[in-house]
Amino acid sequence: MRPDDGNEFIIARLPDDPRIIVASPCSGHGAKFASAIGAMLADMSLDPRAKAPEAFRLDRFSGFAN
Questions:
Q1: Are 33 and 13 within 8 A, CB to CB?
Q2: What's the pLDDT at 40?
Q3: Is the separation of the CB atoms in 33 and 25 below 8 Å?
Q4: 25-35 residue pLDDT tens
Q5: How far apart are CA 36 and CA 43, in angstroms?
Q6: Segment 44-53 long-range contacts (CB within 8 Å, at least 24 positions apart)
Q7: CB atoms within 10 A of CB 12
Q8: Any residues with CB less than 8 A from the CB of 52 and at least 6 apart, and which?
């Protein structure tokens, strides 16, 4: 087993169009966390100011950095 510090997931709004939310489990952990991720995505869909935890941010990848 290894620690999961968020590198297994991407949950973020697209920088060019914040109406679009990107979500990817990027590992086999997706099913285990589906209800929590679903709740987070629902919150983000209903509240345009809501953001996912920093560990899941898309901009941690250089192609999406501001």
A1: no
A2: 93
A3: yes
A4: 877 767 788 88
A5: 11
A6: 44/11, 44/13, 45/21, 48/18, 48/19, 51/12, 51/13, 52/11, 52/12, 53/6, 53/11
A7: 23
A8: 11, 12, 40, 44
Q: In the chain, how many H helices and how many E strands? A: 1, 2
C-beta separation of 39 from 33 below 8 A: no
DSSP 8-state symbol, 16: S
pLDDT at 5 over 70: no
Count the neighbouring beta carbons within 10 Å of the beta carbon of residue 56: 20
- How far apart are alpha carbons 63 and 45 in whole angstroms? 24
Instruction: Determine the pLDDT at residue 1.
Output: 46
